[in-house]
Specification:
The chain has helices at about 1-35, 40-75, 90-100, 125-145, 175-180, 200-210; strands at about 85-90, 110-115, 120-125, 150-160, 165-170. It is an alpha+beta fold. The strands form two sheets. It has a three-stranded mixed sheet with strand order 2-4-5, covered by helices on one side. It has a two-stranded antiparallel sheet with strand order 1-3. β4 (about 150-160) and β5 form a beta hairpin.
Length: about 220
């Protein structure tokens, strides 16, 4: 399903890029013929330049979209455990992830509440945990809160035997039952038209269950 989804998603921007580049080639041939025959007027040259600018912009936009999809796909496939294990503090890591988020994803009015001991540390893979929290928090900021809502995010962490228990929640609009069942599916998104790839949930699930050998559920 994931491979088929990647192929489908990449087909659109690459197809647009091919069409635009073909149009540029046709325009180049046509303009060169006019130049050789001495028929190239100033207005035709301006029209040609307009076509080139429009086509090059379209190609650049399409390639950037394809690159964005490929980067998301790489995060799904990446072996997170290839990084070096080290001891780190959960509280500090969560705060660092939140404050490193692009300003386009958050407004300063939103509040993050991290409820765990400041000295709670684990020996694991910090990059993997950062990826998980990045996509969880981004999901809340992008999907949960309305434009006029000041949202709150709660991260609770504590140890239970040899396990680390993480409880993540926000006070946003929530999801209907049918969406909860698909939240970790590849390319599932409720805002595809806004440029979201729908791979965040898949990345979270893969890291937690495969790299960190944990379990995860959404309610």
């Amino acid at each position: 399903e994931l491979v088929a989804g990647v192929a489908h998603e990449l087909n659109t921007p690459i197809g647009i890029g091919i069409t635009a580049s073909s149009h540029m080639t046709d325009q180049n041939i046509k303009t060169e013929e006019m130049l050789d025959s001495g028929c190239l007027t100033k207005s035709e040259l301006k029209k040609y330049m307009t076509h080139m600018n429009e086509s090059s912009t379209l190609i650049q936009t399409s390639l950037m979209e394809a690159a964005k999809l490929i980067e998301s796909f790489k995060h799904v496939a990446r072996d997170q455990t290839s990084e070096e294990r080290q001891e780190f503090y959960i509280y500090k890591l969560i705060e660092e992830v939140y404050y490193s988020l692009d300003k386009n994803y958050k407004r300063s009015e939103h509040k993050l509440h991290v409820n765990c001991s400041h000295d709670l540390s684990i020996d694991s893979f910090p990059s993997s945990f950062s990826q998980v929290f990045f996509h969880l928090i981004k999901n809340s900021l992008v999907h949960a809160f309305g434009l006029s809502q000041v949202g709150e995010i709660f991260c609770n962490a504590y140890s239970e035997g040899n396990d680390l228990i993480l409880l993540y929640e926000d006070n946003g609009k929530g999801m209907p039952e049918e969406q909860i069942g698909r939240v970790f599916d590849p390319f599932f998104s409720t805002s595809r038209t806004e440029g979201n790839t729908g791979l965040g949930g898949t990345i979270i699930h893969n890291i937690v269950t495969q790299s960190l050998k944990g379990t995860i559920e959404c309610t």
